Amino acid sequence: MARYQIERTKLSDQVIRQLEHDIVAEHFKPGDRLPSERTLMAQFGVGRPTIREALFSLEKMGLVALASGSRARVIRPTPAVVLDGLSGVMGHLLSNVDGQHHFQEARALFEAAMARQAAARAGSADIEALRAALADNAAAIGDEAEFKRTDIAFHRVLSGIPDNPVYTAVHDAMAQWLDDRRAVALEQPGQDRIALAAHERIFEAVARGAPEAADRAMREHLDQHYGVYRRMRAGERE
Question: What pLDDT, on a 0 to 100 scale, did the predictor assign at position 155?
Fold first, then answer.
């Protein structure tokens, strides 16, 4: 007689799956309120802790918004909400050297491809927006905090050129996850000018519609930046 392995699942996981199905199937539409906790407890035959655990998980998935004193509200998932839920995992990944290397590889792949697409698709308005971001970055030389802000802004304008909201969401998430790395590298004298020169090369490649050059300029920029950060962190450990 055949024997089968039956997987036991938590009650909250079962509640999550059912409510997720109802939301995806639009039994509950964006803006709708879910039933009260008391009603959900009766519907599923479980206690309040199970319902609350399920609702917290649905919030992390970007499917509902929770507010004290009111029923959960269904929301439309966005790339930004989904990526924000990864912050804890990314913080753990970036806490060790291997994780930093893996993230750097992934970041270079993403940002180089983003620069390549920007060079292939940029219109005159895109180029002027990127030129303005570059000018703001140049004006911030010598002001560490302002340079970091305009550095992020330059990369964000670049991420918006392909007109794909996933790109800008990934950029914003990476900027948050890498805030420490950017700050540490810019503490080194002259690094703002080196970064600005790299931004100028990226801009020039995008402006003349040269995808290969944009890809190469971005990779060189990120490799140089990461090299500075890695050397400084290695010095702290010695």
Answer: 95
DSSP-assigned letter for residue 74: E
DSSP SS3 for 199: helix
Tell me how far CA of residue 20 lies from CA of 12, 41, 156, in angstroms. 12, 16, 32
3-state secondary structure of 211: helix
Residue type, 28: F
Specify whether domain 83-237 bears CATH 1.20.120.530: yes
Q: Which residue has the tokens 């140049």?
A: 138
The answer to whether the CB of 114 falls within 8 A of the CB of 202 is no
Q: What is the pLDDT of residues 72-85, one digit of tens each?
A: 999 886 655 655 65
Residue 217 — pLDDT band, cuts 50, 70, 90? very high
Structure token digits, residue 16: 């999550």
Question: Could you say which architecture CATH assigns to the domain 11-77?
Answer: Orthogonal Bundle (1.10)
Provide the whole-model pTM: 0.65
Written as one string, the DSSP assignment of 81-109 is HHHHTTHHHHHHHTTSHHHHHHHHHHHHH
Task: For residue 148, give the nearest of 202, 185, 109, 201 by alpha carbon.
Answer: 185
| Token pair belonging to 103 | 């993230």
